[in-house]
């Protein structure tokens, strides 16, 4: 899977292969996170995917449990015309420095899917 991404305040956006990275990357480190921790999380999450899949968007979510770290991923295969196979994945880390993550939710996105996220953040 692709490893070219931009991170801003807990969200990571994967860049298409043909698009060059931005000249000046935005600040990538939230105040509450250790340096490189978000990159480590992305690497571990990519290991959950099939080889043909790519993360299109990864957003760190607020968790009801203080130590748990949660992400919402938009994932789809890299081949042309694979938009019909897009899915939302919920990924959990037991704590900030966890060396593995678990898949907590898989939601396929169909052409008529509507997703509503409830909460204040």
UniProtKB/TrEMBL annotation:
InterPro entries per the UniProt record, alphabetical: Phosphatase_SSH-like, SSH-N
Pfam family, one: PH_SSH1-like_1st
Pro residues compositional bias, start-end: 18-29
Domain annotation Slingshot N-terminal: ranges: 41-121
Residue numbers spanned by region Disordered: 16-39
GO biological process, one term: negative regulation of actin filament polymerization
A GO MF term: phosphatase activity
UniProt xrefs under PANTHER family: PROTEIN PHOSPHATASE SLINGSHOT HOMOLOG 3, SLINGSHOT PROTEIN PHOSPHATASE HOMOLOG
Protein's name according to its UniProt entry: SSH phosphatase
Organism: Chaetorhynchus papuensis (pygmy drongo)
Lineage: Eukaryota, Metazoa, Chordata, Craniata, Vertebrata
């Amino acid at each position: 899977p692709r490893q070219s991404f931009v991170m801003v305040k807990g969200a990571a956006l994967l860049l298409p292969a043909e698009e060059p990275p931005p000249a000046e990357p935005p600040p990538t480190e939230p105040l509450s996170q250790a340096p490189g921790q978000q990159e480590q999380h992305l690497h571990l999450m990519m290991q959950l995917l099939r080889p043909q899949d790519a993360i299109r968007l990864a957003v760190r979510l607020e968790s009801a449990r203080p130590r748990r770290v949660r992400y919402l991923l938009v994932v789809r295969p890299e081949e042309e015309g694979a938009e019909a196979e897009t899915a939302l994945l919920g990924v959990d880390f037991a704590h900030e420095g966890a060396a593995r993550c678990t898949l907590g939710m898989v939601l396929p996105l169909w052409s008529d899917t509507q997703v509503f996220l409830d909460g204040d953040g």
